[in-house]
């Protein structure tokens, strides 16, 4: 994996190097002659090509410019997340944009999934403790996310996922009326 400093150096060789090299070649054109111009231009092109191939063949870290993080589009998301999480422990993850199911007037032919119960007609679902100190239950409402629920009850998202045997992908797709155990 390339270090961030080496990555910046290679990017400079690709984008800035040829321009500065061409300026220097033009300044010294009368001293180096036509053959020197061809050799110098070829050398600049070779250096930029080697830098580009080095970047293309390497696992890259995200680039940080102030508070802005530029993630390489060609690296796997899993590798990027592993690299970013330790660097930004206080930055909340970006919200996921997943479509929420909407109520339709047409009856559906498929039965409701067994893992998520149908919404109940209760006016305002709230958390109800099962016992003093025991786990609580919460019915998901419209607009709820795991982050909102975790903050409301002062628990971590991971704790809610574990208590309900959910994967992170399932946690991103909560259904209105779904009942969650809050540890």
Automatic annotation (TrEMBL):
It comes from the Bacteria. It holds the Pfam family LysM. GO terms for molecular function: lytic endotransglycosylase activity. The keyword rRNA-binding does not apply. Residues 136-182 form the LysM domain. Residues 90-139 are annotated as: Disordered. Gene3D superfamilies: LysM domain. InterPro entries: LysM (IPR018392), LysM_dom_sf (IPR036779). The chain crosses the membrane at residues 37-56. Keywords: Membrane, Transmembrane, Transmembrane helix. The keyword Cytoplasm does not apply. Residues 99-113 have a biased composition (Low complexity). PANTHER family: LYSM DOMAIN-CONTAINING GPI-ANCHORED PROTEIN 2 (PTHR33734), MEMBRANE-BOUND LYTIC MUREIN TRANSGLYCOSYLASE D (PTHR33734:SF22). This is Peptidoglycan-binding LysM. It comes from Chloroflexus aggregans (strain MD-66 / DSM 9485).
């Amino acid at each position: 994996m390339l270090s961030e400093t080496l990555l910046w150096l290679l990017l400079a060789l690709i984008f800035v190097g040829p321009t500065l090299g061409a300026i220097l070649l033009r300044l010294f054109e009368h001293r180096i002659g036509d053959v020197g111009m061809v050799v110098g231009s070829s050398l600049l092109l070779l250096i930029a090509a080697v830098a580009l191939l080095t970047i293309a063949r390497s696992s890259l870290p995200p680039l940080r410019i102030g508070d802005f993080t530029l993630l390489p589009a060609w690296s796997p998301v899993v590798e990027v997340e592993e690299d970013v999480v330790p660097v930004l422990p206080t930055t909340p993850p970006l919200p996921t944009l997943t479509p929420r199911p909407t109520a339709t007037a047409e009856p559906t032919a498929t039965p409701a999934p067994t893992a998520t119960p149908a919404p109940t007609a209760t006016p305002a679902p709230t958390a109800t403790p099962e016992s003093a100190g025991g786990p609580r239950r919460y019915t998901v409402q419209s607009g709820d996310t795991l982050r909102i629920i975790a903050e409301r009850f002062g628990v971590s998202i991971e704790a809610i996922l574990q208590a309900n045997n959910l994967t992170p992908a399932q946690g991103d797709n909560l259904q209105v009326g779904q009942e969650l155990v809050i540890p």
